[in-house]
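Need tokens for this chain, all 227 residues.
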Amino acid sequence: MLRREWEGPVNARAAHRRRLPQRFLRGSYAAHMMTTRIIDDPPIARALFSDTRLAWIWLIVRVYLGWQWLGEGIAKATTSAWVGPHAGAFLTTWVTGSLAKTHGPHPDVQGWYGAFLSSVVLPHTAFWSYLVTFGECAVGLGLILGLFTGIAAFFGTAMNASYLLAGTVSVNPILFALGSLIVLAWKTAGWWGLDRWVLPRLGTPWSGGTAASSSRTSLRTDAKGRP
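Here are the structure tokens for all 227 residues:
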């Protein structure tokens, strides 16, 4: 369904045509006749991604995802090859195996990603081991608690994509698909969680929350009260 947002008045256009140069008129007339159209979401998309009555669906999905991520993160955090004196040992072996998949007519790992692994990840495997470990824990906690759910799901899918690009399939396609749905449902995915109170207070980059409104009101009050 299409909704018309605005149209320029015909009388104003006629008046401008009498006063403006022809060169400007052509561009102005085209812009004046242009209409802005917004395509509405289908009812099923509005129900799934915007209706809080169906937020329980995303509660199940996000808790499952969060448990997967948190379990993996805890397992890594308790392994010395990931965190501890031998941090980076497992990742070094894993990256080396991925680089071996860059050869052949139909490689599992693309050359450009192999170059990234060899030049960015392999020289700093200890750093990446800590980053992956605590990143997985943070994503898991965010999804389980429903705190910044959309952001947590986004970084989860980013890790899934990186594992897939490195040639590791396992459950990554399933987690990537579910995480992408959580990203789309970010408005209601955390309704049964902390986002129910946090998001209205903090707001979004394009719409301030109650905290920002309170701050602006306080500033205006202080300004009026000054001598």
